[in-house]
Amino acid sequence: MAGKFEVYRDKAGKFRFRLKAGNGEVVAVGEAYESKTGAKAGCEAVQRAAAGAPIVETDS
């Protein structure tokens, strides 16, 4: 099964997204957004940025 983005309202009433792997494990969580539309736009931004993104090692 493919992974999926979930958009939800947190305890503070803000919208967030989480990316879940096919096995249901959460692999990424987005920041808080004022609107559901903003959270969905965050999902789309991650999708665009991740396509072909290299893995880079850093010292910190």
From TrEMBL:
| Domain DUF1508 positions | 10-57
Endpoints of the signal sequence: none
Q: Which InterPro entries match?
A: DUF1508, UPF0339_domain, YegP-like_sf
The name on file for this protein is: DUF1508 domain-containing protein
The record ties this protein, via Gene3D superfamilies, to:
YegP-like (3.30.160.160)
Q: Which domain of life is it from?
A: Bacteria
